[in-house]
Write the structure tokens for this entry.
Amino acid sequence: MKKTSTLLARLLFAISLINVSLNVSGQDNEQEPVEGYKFTTIKINPASPVKDQYKSGTCWSFAATSFIESELLRLGYDTIDISEMFFVYKAYQEKAGRYVRLHGNANFGPGGQAHDVFNVVKQNGFVTEEDFPGLLKGETNHLHGELDAVLKGYLDALLSNKDGKISQVWPEAYSALLNAYMGPLPESVIKKGKSPEIVSNEKYPRFNPEEYVELTSYLHHPFYQSIDLEVPDNWSHDRYFNIPVDELIETMNYSINNGYTVCWDGDVSDRGFSHSNGVAIVPDKNVTTMEGTERSSWEKLSEKEKNAELYTFKTPGTEKKVTQEMRQRAFDNFQATDDHLMHFTGIVSDQNGTNYYITKNSWAAASNQNGGYLNISEAYARLNTIAIMVHINAIPADLKKKLKL
């Protein structure tokens, strides 16, 4: 009887040890509750409502147009809804001319840069969204897949030179295609007998498109020089001032803190970019998923991948220290490409004191829970900024001297 009692006691003790072990193991496997991002506003500048580029590769026009709208607000003008598609239409005309003159040995596609908008403004001013929505007949969103294919196909057919020479009517035929897909330009722009109406100069004299510059930061060009930045969407070969990355970040901070905004061109295919979660970071640990430039990428992830990404972007953590050499490698090996333009309108900091740029995207206000905005960390900007556009007075005085501005 005593032996049986001893065996029973040992069995109960062993079971208790198993239970303790299971409880400890279970606690170890549980993720600690996360605090979540808590942002404090440092500076925020006026901006127009978020728009949607939808299925068009025209982020460059949406970002630069938003930038101009903020500049007009800064200059004391009322809010105005400027037509993005007007700039797209005019840029497509100029791009086609270059493509033909260079026998097809030039970039022709929907992409572009901030200066493409300003080049149109300098020549033709701008028009309102009401005057030129640029929508395909029967559509309420921009669908450019067919348009882009038709325009490229027409120009390539033209360059095949079936008749032994290029016809004189091709520009009119090309414009007819643009008119069919985007609608005809407003009469104020195409009226015969006088030069196109320069809306910006006539109605907004305090806005001068000549007062804006683009800045970049790469080691394969000398600093403080004007360079032709080698990105495919710089089809017009406009010039950028090349400066050290520390001064590029300083300029963005100085600009925003002094009431200006920044038109940002950079890479959003980095694994630390998540529009869905409203942040872009360069985490020390590797992120196993990436969102990329297409909003549909999120739906393509498995539930396991989604949960991993959500946890990664759920709370602020340690980020990598980004150097000039790191961003150069990312540019040289095509990790950082000019795949998207957005608009920096302010600065916030998280509970760890890390600064982020309040970023207005062009993927519709309903594209995430932040009304279409996200916060891009300074580390992410250091690594993935291709170029920025700012007002000349948004550049710190010492840098202006170095650039002889």
Notes: The chain has one domain: 40-403. Residues 11-31, 191-197, 289-299 have pLDDT under 50 and may be disordered.
